[in-house]
Amino acid sequence: MTHPDAELLLRLAAGEVEVFDRIVDRFERPLVRYFHALCGDPQLAEDCAQEVFVRLFKARERYSPDAAPNTFVFRIAKNLWIDVYRSKRARPEAASIDAGDDEDDGDRAANLPGPAQNPIEALGREEDQQRLRAALLELPEGQRAVLALAVGQSMKYERIAEILDIPVGTVKSRVHAAVANLRKSMGVDVGSGNSGSAPGSAAGSPSKKGPPNA
């Protein structure tokens, strides 16, 4: 049975541009969450997510049913972030992407992998949440990249390795190092584990719908 996301991408590849709005609905929040985890700037995260949809639309005919939908979309996102990072337009700031958003998802983008309790809930106070966001942005780029997928997108290590084009062992070691660095920075036990994925969800703001100009 074809995954619903794969079906949408296949229909778009076949020329059914009317499904593009549904693809935006499905991936916008995860993409905004992903970019915010990388840069800490809500507006830049929104802009990057919209650019991913432009690139996705242009590359629509390249989608293959052999590729997992998340892999296809987040490879585009990863390559875009490389361009943004190299251009030095990212300005890390410890701002909350959920500001002004009535939906409370526990700020899962700041969670850490493993079975331990939610570190945000453990820290509790808003000032501690801000400290954790700031600590996340102090991580090396490689560590932040794996957490953005392992935590913010609940992806397993194997999928992350496929998207980032790195060995699974490297993913695991970077997650381990990131958790250790956050513990040291925060001075608290924020949990760890090696389950291969972590709880997470996506949040963002609605965007203007419709296929972009190809």
Your description of this structure?
The protein is mainly alpha-helical. It folds into 2 domains: 4-86, Rna Polymerase Sigma Factor, Chain: A; 108-186, Orthogonal Bundle (Arc Repressor Mutant, subunit A), CATH 1.10.10.10. Helices cover 56% and strands 0% of the residues. It contains 9 helices and no strands.
Q: What are the SSEs and their pairings?
A:
Elements: H1 4-13, H2 20-39, H3 42-58, H4 69-86, H5 119-123, H6 126-138, H7 141-150, H8 157-164, H9 168-186
Helix pairs in contact: 1-2, 2-3, 2-7, 3-4, 4-8, 6-9, 7-9, 8-9
Note poorly predicted spans: 92-124, 190-207
Approximate helicity band: 55-70%
Q: Strand content of the residues, in percent?
A: under 5%
The first-level CATH class of the largest domain is given as Mainly Alpha
What is the SS-derived class? mainly alpha
Q: What does this entry show, briefly?
A:
It is built from nine helices and no strands. By secondary structure, the chain is mostly helical. It is globular, with a radius of gyration of 17 Å.
Structure keywords:
about 210 residues, mainly alpha, Rna Polymerase Sigma Factor, Chain: A, Arc Repressor Mutant, subunit A, 2 domains, globular
